[in-house]
Amino acid sequence: MFWPTHGALLVADLHFEKASWFARFGQFLPPHDSQATLDMIEMLVERTGARAVWSLGDSFHDADGAARLDARTRDRLSALTARLDWVWITGNHDVAMAETPGGRRCAEWQVEGIRLRHEADPADEQPEISGHFHPKLRLSLRGRHVSRRCFVGSRNKLILPALGALTGGLDAGHGEIRRVMGPDAMALVPVADRLLRFPLGS
């Protein structure tokens, strides 16, 4: 999500080095997820002209994720964090990280009365933007099953989709998402210059 007033690109759930985490336990996946995720961020920064990146938690898959970055990927990420106003908000996966490749870390942050955090707080009436749930909209169209990353919005909350290349997703209508978002929750799917809205029900 791009916030033009602040020149800020908001991203969530990058899960850098998820494949290398699985490899430590004998499940070998193509080890290119961090590079692919970084490719996407660089493309979005270029497309939007962003001056800042605010990452809403679970930026790394585990506390040792940054240490496992290969030299080329680390250099690319360090160059971006040096050039941009980069904020790492901690999530449940990366809360114990000792350090990040540049930028600054915080548990939560507030901008213009909007709370930026990793996981939505159903008890907080203050407007908030979060990640954590990796929402996906699943539809059946003319006999075909379609699954697509989406935003989930309500009166005072917005959940961002996971941007990481190896992140999977939770159905946007899942009970846990509806619990934190309330009865007016809807999936939001950007398509070209439109925003399609799909009510998720109670």
Unreliable spans: none
Q: How many separate domains?
A: 1
Largest sheet data? 7 strands, mixed
Order of helices and strands: EEHHEHHEEEEEEEEEEHEE
CATH topology: Purple Acid Phosphatase, chain A, domain 2
CATH-scheme architecture: 4-Layer Sandwich
Give the termini separation: 26 Å
Structural class: alpha/beta
Helix content: 10-25%
Global morphology: globular
Average of pLDDT? 92
Q: Tell me, what is the CATH class?
A: Alpha Beta
What do you see in this structure?
The protein has 202 residues and is of the alpha/beta class. It has a single domain (2-199), classed as Purple Acid Phosphatase, chain A, domain 2. 23% of the residues lie in helices and 30% in strands. Strand 9 (135-141) and strand 10 (144-149) form a beta hairpin.
Keywords:
23% helix; Purple Acid Phosphatase, chain A, domain 2; alpha/beta; five-stranded mixed sheet; seven-stranded mixed sheet; single chain; globular; 202 residues; 15 strands
Topology:
Elements: E1 2-3, E2 8-11, H1 18-23, H2 33-48, E3 52-56, H3 65-68, H4 71-83, E4 85-89, E5 104-106, E6 109-111, E7 114-116, E8 128-130, E9 135-141, E10 144-149, E11 151-153, E12 157-159, E13 170-171, H5 175-181, E14 186-191, E15 194-199
Parallel strand pairs: 2-3, 3-4, 4-5, 7-8, 8-12, 9-13
Antiparallel strand pairs: 1-2, 6-7, 9-10, 11-12, 11-14, 14-15
Helix pairs in contact: 2-4
